[in-house]
Amino acid sequence: AGLIAWADEGVRAWDDRVGRLIALGTNVDSAASIAFRSDGARAAVSGWSSSTPNSGMYIIDVASRRTMFSRDIGLANDTDVAFSPDGSLLAFASGDRFEIVDSRLRPQKQLASLPQYTTPEHVAFSPDGRWIAAGLSGPQPGVTVWPVAGSPDPVVLDTGRLTYGPQPLAF
User: Distance from the CA of 127 to the CA of which of 17, 40, 83, 85 falls in 20 to 30 A?
Assistant: First the structure.
Protein backbone atom coordinates (compact mmCIF):
# COMPACT_ATOMS: atom_id res chain seq x y z
CA ALA A 1 0.00 0.00 0.00
CA GLY A 2 1.22 3.51 -0.69
CA LEU A 3 0.70 6.99 -1.96
CA ILE A 4 1.64 8.88 -5.09
CA ALA A 5 1.57 12.66 -4.71
CA TRP A 6 1.68 15.68 -6.99
CA ALA A 7 0.76 19.35 -6.81
CA ASP A 8 -2.27 20.55 -8.71
CA GLU A 9 -4.56 22.96 -6.88
CA GLY A 10 -2.81 22.05 -3.65
CA VAL A 11 -0.96 18.83 -2.92
CA ARG A 12 -3.02 15.78 -3.87
CA ALA A 13 -2.28 12.10 -3.66
CA TRP A 14 -3.67 8.81 -4.87
CA ASP A 15 -4.07 6.54 -1.85
CA ASP A 16 -4.00 2.98 -3.14
CA ARG A 17 -5.18 1.64 0.25
CA VAL A 18 -8.60 3.22 -0.27
CA GLY A 19 -8.50 3.66 -4.05
CA ARG A 20 -9.20 7.37 -4.21
CA LEU A 21 -7.70 10.84 -4.42
CA ILE A 22 -6.99 12.70 -1.20
CA ALA A 23 -5.92 16.30 -0.61
CA LEU A 24 -2.73 16.42 1.47
CA GLY A 25 -2.46 20.14 1.87
CA THR A 26 -4.40 23.08 0.60
CA ASN A 27 -1.94 25.75 1.75
CA VAL A 28 0.58 24.80 -0.97
CA ASP A 29 -0.45 26.04 -4.41
CA SER A 30 2.45 24.73 -6.48
CA ALA A 31 5.07 22.18 -5.41
CA ALA A 32 8.60 21.89 -6.74
CA SER A 33 9.30 18.65 -4.86
CA ILE A 34 7.49 16.09 -2.73
CA ALA A 35 8.99 13.27 -0.64
CA PHE A 36 7.39 10.74 1.69
CA ARG A 37 8.91 9.44 4.89
CA SER A 38 9.49 5.67 4.56
CA ASP A 39 6.51 4.84 6.81
CA GLY A 40 4.22 7.08 4.72
CA ALA A 41 3.08 9.06 7.77
CA ARG A 42 4.60 12.38 6.68
CA ALA A 43 5.21 14.17 3.40
CA ALA A 44 7.77 16.91 2.85
CA VAL A 45 6.80 19.49 0.24
CA SER A 46 8.72 22.43 -1.15
CA GLY A 47 6.62 24.92 -3.03
CA TRP A 48 4.73 28.16 -3.30
CA SER A 49 1.75 29.29 -1.27
CA SER A 50 -0.53 32.19 -2.10
CA SER A 51 -0.45 33.13 1.60
CA THR A 52 3.29 33.96 1.55
CA PRO A 53 5.46 35.97 -0.86
CA ASN A 54 8.24 33.35 -0.87
CA SER A 55 8.46 29.62 -1.37
CA GLY A 56 8.51 27.34 1.63
CA MET A 57 9.07 23.88 3.03
CA TYR A 58 6.15 22.06 4.61
CA ILE A 59 5.89 18.84 6.61
CA ILE A 60 2.39 17.42 6.20
CA ASP A 61 0.87 14.75 8.45
CA VAL A 62 -0.72 12.37 5.94
CA ALA A 63 -3.41 10.96 8.27
CA SER A 64 -4.76 14.35 9.38
CA ARG A 65 -3.76 16.08 6.10
CA ARG A 66 -2.51 19.05 8.11
CA THR A 67 0.70 21.03 7.87
CA MET A 68 2.74 20.20 10.97
CA PHE A 69 5.79 22.39 10.31
CA SER A 70 6.73 25.04 7.77
CA ARG A 71 9.75 27.13 6.91
CA ASP A 72 10.23 30.08 4.55
CA ILE A 73 13.01 29.32 2.04
CA GLY A 74 13.08 32.61 0.16
CA LEU A 75 12.74 33.08 -3.55
CA ALA A 76 13.65 29.62 -4.77
CA ASN A 77 12.35 28.13 -8.01
CA ASP A 78 14.08 24.76 -8.03
CA THR A 79 14.14 22.79 -4.83
CA ASP A 80 14.35 19.14 -3.90
CA VAL A 81 13.82 17.22 -0.68
CA ALA A 82 14.54 13.68 0.51
CA PHE A 83 13.89 11.97 3.85
CA SER A 84 16.60 9.94 5.53
CA PRO A 85 15.77 6.21 5.76
CA ASP A 86 14.74 6.54 9.43
CA GLY A 87 12.70 9.71 8.74
CA SER A 88 14.55 11.83 11.31
CA LEU A 89 16.34 14.05 8.78
CA LEU A 90 15.56 15.76 5.54
CA ALA A 91 18.04 16.75 2.84
CA PHE A 92 17.00 20.03 1.33
CA ALA A 93 18.43 21.75 -1.73
CA SER A 94 17.40 25.18 -2.92
CA GLY A 95 19.35 27.65 -5.00
CA ASP A 96 22.89 27.69 -3.67
CA ARG A 97 21.92 26.07 -0.33
CA PHE A 98 22.25 22.38 0.40
CA GLU A 99 21.54 21.43 3.98
CA ILE A 100 20.17 18.85 6.37
CA VAL A 101 17.19 19.76 8.55
CA ASP A 102 15.45 17.73 11.24
CA SER A 103 11.87 16.47 11.03
CA ARG A 104 10.65 19.85 12.32
CA LEU A 105 12.62 21.70 9.59
CA ARG A 106 15.24 23.06 12.02
CA PRO A 107 18.69 23.39 10.39
CA GLN A 108 21.16 20.67 11.41
CA LYS A 109 24.07 20.89 8.96
CA GLN A 110 25.03 22.98 5.95
CA LEU A 111 26.37 20.47 3.44
CA ALA A 112 27.89 22.75 0.85
CA SER A 113 28.54 26.22 -0.38
CA LEU A 114 28.24 25.67 -4.08
CA PRO A 115 29.98 27.58 -6.85
CA GLN A 116 28.06 30.40 -8.50
CA TYR A 117 25.31 29.24 -10.89
CA THR A 118 25.50 25.66 -9.56
CA THR A 119 22.28 24.21 -8.17
CA PRO A 120 21.58 20.87 -6.46
CA GLU A 121 18.48 19.76 -8.33
CA HIS A 122 18.03 16.19 -7.12
CA VAL A 123 18.92 14.74 -3.73
CA ALA A 124 18.89 11.23 -2.27
CA PHE A 125 19.98 9.53 0.96
CA SER A 126 21.81 6.22 0.84
CA PRO A 127 19.75 3.30 2.23
CA ASP A 128 21.93 3.21 5.38
CA GLY A 129 21.58 7.00 5.88
CA ARG A 130 25.35 7.61 5.85
CA TRP A 131 25.55 9.51 2.54
CA ILE A 132 23.63 12.17 0.65
CA ALA A 133 23.98 12.49 -3.11
CA ALA A 134 23.05 15.51 -5.20
CA GLY A 135 22.69 15.90 -8.94
CA LEU A 136 24.16 19.29 -9.71
CA SER A 137 23.32 21.51 -12.65
CA GLY A 138 25.15 24.57 -13.85
CA PRO A 139 28.45 25.26 -15.59
CA GLN A 140 29.94 21.98 -14.33
CA PRO A 141 27.07 19.50 -13.91
CA GLY A 142 27.74 16.32 -12.05
CA VAL A 143 26.90 14.05 -9.17
CA THR A 144 28.44 14.67 -5.76
CA VAL A 145 28.16 12.64 -2.56
CA TRP A 146 28.56 14.02 1.00
CA PRO A 147 28.86 12.13 4.29
CA VAL A 148 25.93 12.90 6.62
CA ALA A 149 28.23 12.94 9.66
CA GLY A 150 31.91 13.65 10.01
CA SER A 151 34.00 15.22 7.27
CA PRO A 152 32.37 17.98 5.21
CA ASP A 153 34.43 16.98 2.18
CA PRO A 154 32.34 15.67 -0.71
CA VAL A 155 33.20 12.91 -3.15
CA VAL A 156 32.81 14.20 -6.70
CA LEU A 157 31.83 11.49 -9.13
CA ASP A 158 32.78 11.55 -12.80
CA THR A 159 31.56 14.73 -14.50
CA GLY A 160 33.33 14.32 -17.84
CA ARG A 161 30.49 12.54 -19.59
CA LEU A 162 27.52 14.30 -17.98
CA THR A 163 25.41 16.64 -20.04
CA TYR A 164 24.24 20.05 -18.96
CA GLY A 165 20.93 19.97 -17.13
CA PRO A 166 19.33 18.04 -14.28
CA GLN A 167 21.19 15.00 -12.99
CA PRO A 168 18.55 12.66 -11.48
CA LEU A 169 19.95 10.02 -9.17
CA ALA A 170 19.04 7.14 -6.87
CA PHE A 171 20.87 4.76 -4.56
Answer: 17
